[in-house]
Design brief:
Layout: H1 2-16, E1 27-34, E2 45-48, E3 54-56, E4 62-66, E5 72-76, E6 83-86, E7 91-96, E8 106-109, E9 112-115, E10 123-127, H2 128-132, H3 139-143, E11 150-154, E12 164-168, E13 181-184, E14 187-188, E15 199-205, H4 208-211, E16 222-227, E17 238-250, H5 259-272, H6 281-289, H7 302-306, E18 311-323, E19 327-339, E20 346-359, E21 364-380, H8 385-394, E22 408-409, H9 417-423, E23 426-445, E24 448-467, E25 470-474, E26 477-482, E27 488-511, E28 515-538, E29 557-578, E30 582-593, E31 602-613, E32 627-641, E33 655-662, E34 665-671, E35 683-696, E36 701-713, E37 716-718, E38 731-733, E39 736-752, E40 755-772, E41 778-779, E42 782-784, E43 792-795, E44 798-801, H10 805-810, E45 813-814, E46 826-828, E47 836-837, E48 843-846, E49 851-862, E50 865-876, E51 878-880, E52 933-935, E53 938-949, H11 952-957, E54 963-976, E55 997-1007
Parallel strand pairs: 1-7, 13-16, 22-25, 45-47
Antiparallel strand pairs: 1-4, 2-3, 2-5, 5-6, 8-9, 10-15, 11-12, 13-14, 15-16, 17-18, 17-55, 18-19, 19-20, 20-21, 21-23, 23-24, 24-27, 25-26, 27-28, 28-29, 29-30, 30-31, 31-32, 32-35, 33-34, 35-36, 36-39, 37-38, 39-40, 40-49, 41-42, 42-43, 43-48, 44-46, 49-50, 50-53, 51-52, 53-54, 54-55
Length: about 1000
Amino acid sequence: MRKCTQTIFLLLMLLLAVKINAQNGGKITGQVSDATTKLPLASVSVSVKGTQHGTISDDQGKFSLTAKQGDVLVVTSVGYEPMEIKVASANVSIILKSQGNDLTDVVVVGYGKQKKVNLTGAITSVKGEEMNARQTGNAYLALQGLAPGLTIRQLNGQPGDNGAFVRVRGEGSINAGSSPLVLVDGVEMDFNNLDMSTVESISVLKDASSASIYGSRAANGVILVTTKRGVNTDGKARVTLSSYVAIQNPTNMPDPVSAVEYMQLINQANKNNNANPQFSDQLINDYITLGPDNNTRYATDWRGMILKNSAVMQNHSFNMNAGTEKLRTVLSGSFYNQDGLIKNNNYKRYTLRSNTDYSLTKWLRATLDLNFRNGNLLEPSLSTPQSIIRKALSFVPIFSGKNNNGTWGYGQNGDNPIAVTEVGGTTNTKTPEVIVNGGIVITPLKGLTSTTNYTVRTSTTRVSSFISPYDTYEGGVFKATYPPDGTQGSESWTQVVYKLFRSQLNYNTILAHKHEIGLLAGVQTEETRVTGFNAGRKGYYFTGYDNLSNGDPATATNAGSTSELAMASFFGRINYAFAGKYLVELNGRWDASSRFARENWWAFFPSASVGWRVSEENFMKTLKPVLSNLKFRSSYGLLGNQSLSSYYPAVSTIDLGWSYWFNKQLNSGGAQTILANPNIQWEKSRQFNIGVDAGFFQNKLNFSFDYYRKYIYDLLQQLPVPYYVGMSAPFVNAGSMENKGWEASVNYNNKIGKVNYSITANLSDVKNKVLNLYGKQYISSTIIKEGYAINSYYGYKTSGYFQNQDEINKAPAQFNDKANTKPGYIRYQDLNGSGIVNDSDRVVLGNPFPRYEYSLDLKVNYKGFDLDIFLQGVGKRQYYISGYGAQPFYVGSTIFKSQTDTWSPTNSNAAYPLLLIDGSGVNPNYKISDKWIANAAYMRVKLVTLGYTLPKRITDKAKMGPVRFYVSAQNLLTISNFIKGYDVEAEVSSGQFYPLMRTTTFGVNVNF
């Protein structure tokens, strides 16, 4: 494979080294620019009037063709006013005026750009300024709601946690991953590591036509990010400074009961179970009359002592653009800092990026992009922030937290989350990343461009952790040291080195003014190497000396690992447009992956799409004032997926660390623990899409609609093997499922006097269905079963509560335990009529995937003022909540005020069943059932921004560019019927979570 790639690369370089000498005489050159933005325009048609001579501008807006002085050039581009210009010199500067619609947009597609009007695939393009207007530390949230078919759900508000649920058109696999491929300037990287001020545009590739050029990586969609590049500023630097400070508060959290309420409710729970009270009336009365003394009577406000009321987030960035005709560069940097809701929890991020283009000659250009990022996350060592917050909300208030003399209370069995947060030690995670991307762009022939890039991305994660035990006391008496293992220190280091080589040829031409042809061919190789090690020691006897060498050598541990993955690819595309009306696109990619055995390395992923611009037909001309644009399009193609967690599923591997007895001695060794399957191949996805785009009234009103079906087959799963085999099952290609859905988008732009406004609405829906698993089922609290959506909730149907003993006697036995069923217990339905409620009565109860996702964006600007109101929501969704989130007194926890509405003979329709102490967590009332599956539909005022730009007369006097001040509120208001105390969007299923934040931001953007 490597020799083949090298050969092709050499052939390409020999071809691209050819330079065509300028024709003698009659040759003119020029550049085409946008009248408003002053930026160069690509793919503009320039022809000599009355002749067949013509060309199109390149990505820098430049062109050359044969003409002489006095000739007339005809310049046309979709969305711009046509222009004729008389040739007066050998160099021509052309400035086009927009017709006032977005058909002029050039959209980034796989390995290139296309006019939006010529697209035949399902692509949503988002401009960088739309992202940059949403100042948030999580880049995915800035994209939320802007692209129909792209599901983004914020899982928590934890500093440094980039986690977000991201899907393009639904779930794509059971075991091979469902997240989209994210490429920044062609290089795979974490979307959340972006400085949004550097983003020029984002394209979401959703169907096979747009994504199949990425082959086996594209089954779950592709997100392409293009960063800003330098322009010719005549050597003058243009600088933009952006800064904001934000105050963050939790959107929603449960409210625990007081110490007195807790004791009263515990006694009530014991009474309900025919047990004696746990707390005497005298003790409760002492709490009420005397109050806690913080020595023998505690009323610890765990939430108040651990959680802050608010946290600060800030970001400061700069962007400098400077360039000449030959050298153009963009330099940007940012500093981001987010404090957490608990002590010793903070995330800082530094980024620095430079994109440089250097025109060595008229036909040779070099590019060099440098990107540096360093994240620094600080967290407590003894527990995760989510766990600490859960304890702050669920710990019993009569536990001791902090004694009057400043010593630490005993908490729960020595676990005191206040002490854990403040003195239990910290974990520091540093994540430096360096990306170097160099390229050569050659234009040896008119319309022919060669691009060759080599990229190295080095990502390192270094974790330093130290645990400092603390002593606990209660009633002035020493209780225990927690944790009992003493001081512990550890270091871990993981480095990912990713190398990418890509070389491609692009050829674009227009024949006879009607035939627009685009060709693409390329080769790409990728190599990934992951190296890691970790080490640790215990027994640090000198405070402040926490280096590994200061621990007890006898306790030393260490380990290391290395893994590699390689891919090779060939890709190509053909675009054809006739008379701007009939559009055809063909894509193909050959991929090889080292995950598979040699005979299964390669696979081919093709796609085809067509489009018809009906509005350009002669019979539609009379409708042009009303129906400005009408295009039908359709696509079909094959995509692949191979994103298993294992790099080597096709070969037998040996795991070390297994021990064997030989000659009555224990010896270390290795063993094969997982069966291999050399016959496995890619998961595959056949995708069909049909769509329509329409524009009305000079494209003031635009509408787009898509319907699609994704059929996913050859699923990679592990079918059962007999126990006597003694190893885990191998992966096999077996199974299929499908996603069906639709997307609609409407946009209206207009103005009333001096008031400009726009309204954008998006609505989408997708349904998943598992078709064939070859008899296998995946069952837990969820189920993966043929005929239902993946990971559907699986449990019991209920019909209220048992109200009396007579109802219990007449009803089917609940889990073979009728004698222990009480009035106030949940009544589970015997669906199979066996007379007993058991596992056989479980059914599918719904699924957690959102339906009818929608958004509404309202923008208004008047003179210097601008207002943006963004609403986002989900029309239908189920969500199962359990554990600390649903059960009062769950495994020794407290009870929330929202959970005190419990069943009694006088409160028969209560929200919660009979109140009982659930120390073991097996209370039969809290089995997974429709009782605990909440309605998670919602409508959220996601963002409201009010800005003001200083008048130009003021900034001109100060020799400045535009200056804008703004204030914004994120997650301002939510309307839902979700469980009280929890945010409907967050991941709170077990009651352990980091709350989402309501954020108020004050910022300024200054241009020089």
